[in-house]
Amino acid sequence: MSLCCYLEYILIVVGVIFAFIAVADKLISKKRDLKGKHVMITGGSSGIGLSVAHEVAGRGAHVTLIARNIANLEKAKADVEATVANSVAGGKVQIFSVNLGCDSDAVSSVIKDAEAVLGPVYMLVNCAGFSRAQKFEELSPQVVKSVMDVNVLGSFFITQEAVRSMKQQQEGIIVFTSSQGGLLGLYGFSAYSAAKGALIKLAEALHMEVKPYNITVTVCCPPDTDTPGFEEENKTKPTETKLISEAAGLFKPEEVAHKLVEDALAGKFMTTNGLEGFMLTALCAGMGPITDLKSFLAQVLLSGVFRAVSAFYLWSFDRIVYKEYQQRMSSKKAE
Ligand SMILES: NC(=O)c1ccc[n+]([C@@H]2O[C@H](COP(=O)([O-])OP(=O)(O)OC[C@H]3O[C@@H](n4cnc5c(N)ncnc54)[C@H](OP(=O)(O)O)[C@@H]3O)[C@@H](O)[C@H]2O)c1
């Protein structure tokens, strides 16, 4: 038998194994459903959070939306109520204006206030957050503090409140929205990558703590997604960051939200979109929780190959950075 035949044979066997695992995974995984359940979404008035609200409302959940701007919250509530009206199972929608970055008293009471109307929170989706892409030395202390406060502490404290309630119920789903920029540090994202990376470690620790209580933890690592937040991020983004990140493409918030909800209901620890996302989450799994057979086998079998592929990505990123540096230097000399 020639080498080509051997390779073909190996590829077919690997393909069949993966197909078998995918089917087995679907049969084994006990997908939960959201009909009549209370889902709380921080950052639910815009972008990915708002799309998650539509996704869960369409599945019959009662929805609590949290953000700061009350006018945007009211508009989001009306939008999500329209989705509820078109779905078979009618849920309720309520809104709360809270600054998750600093308003600790309001954070501790919002779960109680929301639960008083819609019952115990079954699923908390932490979406509130923002990114600031700027060169390291140009980031002001206020911006760095705010990136940490909103992205990390804004998820931390409200999740503590939710976990207290979920432990009593002996069930629940917690979702943290990190980023692909939380899986690897990228040019211009020193504050943002640090904050989103911290969320992944927070989720790993919490996953181990709450597992016996039938509470699952999922981390969403979205790629670039077409949202008002992404538009804002682009305003300060260095050219290097734009060139590096555009390779992975731009996703729709609805696609990210759909995958987030599907994977969270299946209890998967990581959820992401696209080929780069698949590669990154497999490569960065480390000592993270093992929650499904398919992802685990992909991590075991493909990590070595993906590490080799990462060398090409890193080489092309370094080239972009070096080229921009040279251009800056030559225009400085010309001045
Ligand atoms: N879009 C992307 O390309 C992308 C990629 C990876 C990860 N992510 C992450 O995904 C999440 C959602 O991003 P997005 O692009 O959908 O953002 P977005 O469109 O700007 O929406 C952000 C939401 O968070 C709320 N929010 C912001 N700061 C808050 C605070 N201090 N307290 C309470 N609510 C706050 C906003 O409402 P108010 O301003 O009214 O408070 C809004 O509802 C973020 O965590 C982001 O880092 C986004």
TrEMBL record:
InterPro entries: KDSR-like, KR_dom, NAD(P)-bd_dom_sf, SDR_fam
Primary location group: endoplasmic reticulum
Places the protein is found: Endoplasmic reticulum
Pfam (any one): adh_short
Domain Ketoreductase: 37-226
Record-linked SUPFAM superfamilies: NAD(P)-binding Rossmann-fold domains (SSF51735)
Domain of life: Eukaryota
Pathway(s) per entry: Lipid metabolism; sphingolipid metabolism; Sphingolipid metabolism
Keyword list, A-Z: Endoplasmic reticulum, Lipid metabolism, Membrane, NADP, Oxidoreductase, Sphingolipid metabolism, Transmembrane, Transmembrane helix
E.C. code: 1.1.1.102
GO biological process: 3-keto-sphinganine metabolic process; sphingolipid biosynthetic process
Family per record: Belongs to the short-chain dehydrogenases/reductases (SDR) family.
Protein's UniProt name: 3-dehydrosphinganine reductase
Organism: Halocaridina rubra (Hawaiian red shrimp)
Lineage of the species this protein comes from: Eukaryota, Metazoa, Ecdysozoa, Arthropoda, Crustacea
